[in-house]
Write a structure and sequence with these properties.
Length: 164
């Protein structure tokens, strides 16, 4: 009888944290540039169109509120994407899992793997993660491809896929 034990994997925690930090840094830098520009105009006595210079505090408050809304949306999106996407490897199958409210589970036969390719950016190399692209093919013209983004220790996963 075949052993059906499997280990579940998800994206790299380091890459997840890096994405969160990037969202916060980029939005804070954009807000700083906009607020510095507005305050610089006011300090130099430059009039804004439509008498907006009289409403600088309201403009800054609106930009701040927009920044907070965008950061919240981006963080929730990144967190949900990371927590709801995973995969597992059994002795005979690769199983991908996606979704919370509507979930999708797809099984791929490991014996049909044609190629496994690892792509790594400089940041991914530093964080020891990468994207794994797997191509499947079988007789009768069946072909399929699976991309597993941001996977920790991709060389280990490649080894598991090739030797199961």
């Amino acid at each position: 009888m075949e052993n059906k034990q499997s280990t579940t994997y998800r994206g790299s925690t380091g890459l997840f944290v890096a994405r969160l930090i990037a969202v916060l840094l980029v939005t804070d830098i954009a807000y700083s540039v906009v607020s510095t520009f507005l305050l610089g105009l006011i300090a130099n006595g430059i009039q804004l169109p439509f008498d907006l210079h009289h409403h600088t505090a309201i403009l800054l408050m609106l930009f701040s509120f927009g920044k907070i809304v965008f950061q919240t949306w981006a963080i929730i999106r990144i967190a949900i994407s990371w927590t709801t996407t995973s995969f597992s490897i059994t002795q005979t199958h690769l199983v991908t899992h996606k979704g919370v409210l509507t979930s999708q589970q797809t099984m791929y036969d490991l014996h049909l793997i044609r190629s496994v390719v690892i792509h790594q950016s400089l940041l991914e190399k530093l964080l020891r993660c990468g994207t794994i692209c797997i191509e499947f093919s079988a007789s009768g013209g069946y072909t399929d491809a699976v991309t597993l983004p941001g996977i920790s220790n991709p060389k280990h996963i490649e080894h598991l896929l090739r030797h199961q």
